[in-house]
Amino acid sequence: MNLLNFTLKKDLLRGLFSLLLLGFICTSCSGDATNEADDIQQDLTEVERASQIDQIDDTLGDLVIEAYEQQEISESGRSSYTSGIPGCVTITIVAQQYYREVTLDFGTEGCIVNGHVLTGQIVFDYTRDPEAQQIMINYNLVAFTFDAKQVLGSRTILRELSNANGNPQFIHTLDLTVIWPNGVQASREGTRVREWIQGFGTGVYTDNVFEITGDWTANFVNGNTHTYDVITALRRETTCSNIVSGSVDVQRTNFGGIFDFGDGSCDNQATFTFNNGTEIPITLN
Fold first, then answer.
1. Is the backbone of residue 90 left (phi > 0), alpha (psi -120 to 50) or beta?
2. Is this structure's pTM higher than 0.85?
3. What stretches of the chain adopt beta strand conformation (E)?
């Protein structure tokens, strides 16, 4: 082999090796980018699922508080009450001397409550004392579904007649598991404090407005855990199926940001702003 042929072959091999190395690097970069995009999509999906748990939390709270207030006003004879619970819900009361058990039955075919389809039962009980400053309400979910999602849990609500602002307040202890139709599962633990800022004592459901604060944790079956801390009180109007304003700080090991429910408009739109400033729209329903 002469020197020229040897040099040409060596240069050819070096070029082929360089191309192979470049291809490997590009493939690796492409794979990293794809994995990163998949991780971001997974994070956003979990944020959206957490917002669906918010809807369930809020609806459960609305129904229990509404049924409790309706029952108490009915027994006290203070005034008439215009209920916001639809007629498809069957309400059963078991009354003993100081004890009340209330069952809200949504049937097996589904009952539409504020735009959501509910089945099964909510059963709650409490010790009745009209003079008490605090009442503990305990409730359980029986074969309960919310928009085809199975919801499991038992919870407590501490009703305070008057908080530091002079308003009624409900402290919810959260212990809830949600299973989506595709088998995805998440649980929530923590505390939500619901202050009744408008509509108390009017006897009309549609003018009720609450502000929600608190902190909680969402755990997904894939091992991901999200922490939530309300930084601007969430405004809950009972005539709207979604929270209309307020913001929550959301953090996970490798990502975080601010979930913002908007400016007070009753819609299903929110935004999530990552810690790096990137903002994306979120559809709540």
1. beta
2. no
3. 90-95, 99-105, 111-113, 116-127, 134-146, 149-160, 169-179, 185-198, 209-220, 225-237, 245-252, 255-263, 269-274, 279-283
| CA-to-CA separations, 33 to 36, 37, 38, 148, in angstroms, rounded | 5, 6, 9, 35
Q: What distance lies between CA 52 and its chain's CA centroid? A: 5
Using H for helix, E for strand and C for coil, what is the string for 118-183?
Answer: EEEEEEEEEECCCCCCEEEEEEEEEEEEECCEEEEEEEEEEEECCCCCCCCEEEEEEEEEEECCCC
User: What number is the average pLDDT over the span 91-110?
Assistant: 95
Token digits of residue 185: 């599962």
Condensed to tens digits (0 to 9), the pLDDT of residues 189-221 reads 999 999 999 988 777 778 889 999 999 999 998
Confidence of residue 154 (pLDDT cuts 50, 70, 90): confident
Q: What is the pLDDT of residues 5-29, one digit of tens each?
A: 433 333 433 443 343 333 433 444 4
Spatial contact of 44 and 51, defined as CB atoms under 8 Å apart: no
